[in-house]
Amino acid sequence: MVRLRALFIASHPGPSLAITAMATVLAAEAAPHGFGPVLTAPAMLAGQLSVGWSNDACDAARDIAAGRPDKPVVRGEVTVRSLWVAAVVSLLAALAMAAAISLVTLGILVLLIGAAWAYNLGLKSTPWSGVLFLLGFGPLPAYAASTLPGQPAPRFWVCVAAGLVGLGAHFANVLPDLDADLRSGVHGLPQLVAARWGPGAARAAALVLLLSASALLVAEATPARRWIAVAGLCCSCVLAVVGALGKGRTPFRAALAIAGADVAVFVLGADALTSAAHLTGALR
To answer: pTM for the whole thing?
Structure first.
């Protein structure tokens, strides 16, 4: 039970479940009666769990050296080998389930999860870290749309909003560890921004990126339901203030909450995920 609990914590359950929920809601909105949503959630969840486990496995040496008590591998509750085994098995399961939906879904999931693995395996310490978060979040609407018959492309602005959320979450996630990251040689995009212009600039960048995604949803909402997008933007502003004033992991939690608000706004007040989905809905 101790090892299972350690594996659960090492999987980064908060982000894993949040990203899975976003993809699942988008897929359900796009094809509520299709086969895709049945495997969409478990495939994405397995992929995200593999990302969490590989992250802790890659960072084990650095975490042990820093004496981080929040990491199960530092407390000796799970081994690095166990983390790698769990990560690889989960990754293979994710790819198998995605392939069962369609080859397009498989390709998009490879892009999403591959970007996260590349980040874990070393690119987190380079300016490319920001690009990897764009690739890890921007195609989420495409992953959902691939569950539709014919795998139509999603609307471009939906992918842009998802990418902005991902990049904003990247900046928010590193805020508590900026000083430690710079000392240990992690020079990702947020760390470089903080080193050049100060931690306040990294915090401001996170807020601007996240709120830009919410503002984009307002601009693209259907006129009859624009009030829903405006309400979502107001909610995002409140969450942004909470994140700006919060300490520790609060900014990242606020970022995930803003992402959830954006997904809710899209489902309730925006246009269809794809033009094909819109036409399909109109014919029913």
So the answer is: 0.85
The DSSP secondary-structure symbol of 153 reads P
Residue 98, amino acid: A
pLDDT digits (tens, 9 = 90+) for 166-177: 898 888 888 877
Token pair belonging to 258: 């803003």
Please identify which residue in the block is written with the tokens 């405006």: 230
Identity of the amino acid at 63: D
The answer to whether residues 221 and 268 touch, using CB atoms and an 8 Å cutoff, is no
Classify burial at 255, counting beta carbons within 10 Å of its beta carbon; exposed 0-12, middle 13-18, buried 19 or more.
Answer: buried
Hey, what domains does the chain have and what are their CATH numbers? 2-283 (1.10.600)
b/e map of 97-135 (b: 16 or more CB within 10 Å)?
A: bbbebbebbbbbbbbbbebbbbbbeebbebebbbbbbbb
What is the distance between the terminal CA atoms of the chain, rounded to a whole angstrom?
49
CA-based radius of gyration for the chain: 19
The one-character DSSP state at 124 is G
The amino acid at residue 235 is C
pLDDT tens digits along 79-112? 999 999 999 999 999 999 999 988 999 999 999 9
